[in-house]
Amino acid sequence: MMSGLYQKAEEQFKNRLPFALYSKPGETVAVGIFQKDASLHFTTDFKEEGFVLAPFHGEQFVLLPKEKSDVFTEAYTRIAIENNNTVFGADVAAKENFEQLVQNGVDAICKGNFKKVVLSRKETVSLENVTPFELFKKLLSAYPTAFKYCFFHPEIGMWLGATPEQLLKASGDRIKTVALAGTQVYHEGEIKWEIKEQKEQEFVTEFILEGLEDYAAEKNSSKPYTFRAGNIVHIKTDIEARLHDRQDLEKIIKMLHPTPAVCGLPKEASKKFILENEGYNREYYSGFLGELNRDFAKDKPENSDLFVNLRCMKLQNGKANLYIGCGITKDSIPEKEFIETVNKSLTLKNILG
Ligand SMILES: C=C(O[C@@H]1C=C(C(=O)O)C=C[C@H]1O)C(=O)O
């Protein structure tokens, strides 16, 4: 059965018009924003209302503006998702390349160029006869606590993902963000973290709290805790604050993005290393996306809900390009880091096929 929301999305896609379908963590409502023209709009001052998609690098933040779009919402019920047990073969060349990249990152850290860098790779998987909408629906059921989305623009392409990481939630002058780092495969029973991973996550918390210093008061942060995202777990700290001036939203977003969780510390040196060494274009992976200045489901202004674009893929010519990365510090072991990217890639591989 085709519902109204998906019928509209199929038509929009057929007509090569931009749209975003998404559902927020913990909610069972899907929102569709359907832009009425095919133009490429960008944010200018972050005062616009709409759906934003920002790349990892660069200042051109794509916007589906509210006033140029139709908005629909639709409740859904989660269904049981079977893990498809397809075994994806390991690509020897990809493994060697990534491990060399990680080793170069470790060497640069040991030389003192920076403290942490997040390195990533792209993996291409063939798609069986499946539409983006079917994949999006699977994401809705498989990842209740993630931000699930399907974004299309004729000049950008088709992106889908289920990200566990909030970049920023703003409600009037109240903001929330998180410090996320450390990764291991989920298992039953107590999850233990090594000191190295705890330290790495603390760096991220410190970076955010220091960055907020000039803009916010009443800063509060939770204790770090274990947070599950599909088949893996991370360490997470919740951070809340009150802005001195709500107009500083743009400055806060630019201070946070790209966060040490997807770029590194310090930001500029690690970013330079990524751009010069990764050897491919991340495009919108590890950028951010979501609601800008409007909660579309509740139809409320002055609410932004932005997420880091992780566990995502770009669909192109019957294939899915998956993007996966991990944080590198001086103690990183290249092979372990490669395995971590394989584990993270299962978030999406589990719904493909
Ligand atoms: C970079 C990614 O994930 C990030 C890196 C993590 C890590 O280094 O342990 C953990 C969570 C995310 O903040 C990714 O999934 O591609």
UniProtKB/TrEMBL annotation:
Give the enzyme's EC designation: 5.4.4.2
The cross-references to Gene3D superfamilies, in alphabetical order and at most eight, read: Anthranilate synthase (3.60.120.10)
Which controlled-vocabulary keywords does the entry list?
Isomerase
| Reactions this protein catalyses | chorismate = isochorismate
From the UniProt record, list the coiled-coil ranges: none
* Gene Ontology MF terms in the entry: isochorismate synthase activity
* Keyword Transmembrane helix assigned: no
- The top EC class, named as a word, is isomerase
Domain of life from the UniProt record? Bacteria
Tell me which residues make up the Chorismate-utilising enzyme C-terminal domain.
Answer: 95-344
Name the protein family. Answer: Belongs to the isochorismate synthase family.
Query: What name goes with this protein?
Result: isochorismate synthase
Q: Which species is listed as the source?
A: Flavobacterium lindanitolerans
